[in-house]
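Anyone? Bumping this.
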Amino acid sequence: MALNKRELEEFYRALETPLYNFALRWVFHPALAEDIVHDAFIRIWSRRDEVDLATLKSLLYKTIQNLALNEIRNRRVRDAVPILAWLLPVKTPEATLLENEELEALRAGLEKLPLNLREVLLLTEFSDMSQAEIARTLDIAEGTVGSRRNRALQLLKEGNHEAL
Amino acid sequence: MKLYEPKPGGWPRLNAKLAEYDREQSREIMFWRGAAAAMIALVVIVSTHRPAAPTLEDKSVNATVEMPGTPANVHYYWVVN
């Protein structure tokens, strides 16, 4: 059965804060994080006939992660090609980042984590999905979720990523 | 990790974006329907059109004329339109 607007609104209202925080820890830009969450919902809406409500939450997190990674890649390209930054001016994260040292420190740590550890850590922190659901979302073994999370936390606490 | 609150009014903003998305989709569907109708009309017109049979007034005929001063076995051909 196709997803209707009321169901989508219920999902949005229930998941807005965790999804926003999940996106924020990828892009570290409040307005961009909101845009990414909205874009994910628009994508879901565009495929509302095929969406399965049982897996919608998992699909939302995965879509947000993919959109955030696209944004990060685009940002790298813009940074690497100065003319693009001039032609396509964007708010840099530095310009509008929350004035919060804690978040800045976390950003430095998270950006040094390998992608596979970062995605597991953020999903376990912000989605209230079970370990099994996260494993299905990322297509990895359930035990790997726990081990990657522990490894990510350990590296963050150490604050020493030279070994990576 | 700490939870930050998103900017208030997230749903109304998203709802407006969804409405805009739906409008764009409708416009796109209308455009493609119009294009398909135009193509079908064109195909019907082309397939039902029959060129008129040649008549005596048709000037597209080959003419052979003798040019003075040329050997008898050389002829010039041209099409008179």
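Late reply, but here is one note on the structure posted above: The beta strands of chain B are 61-65, 76-80.
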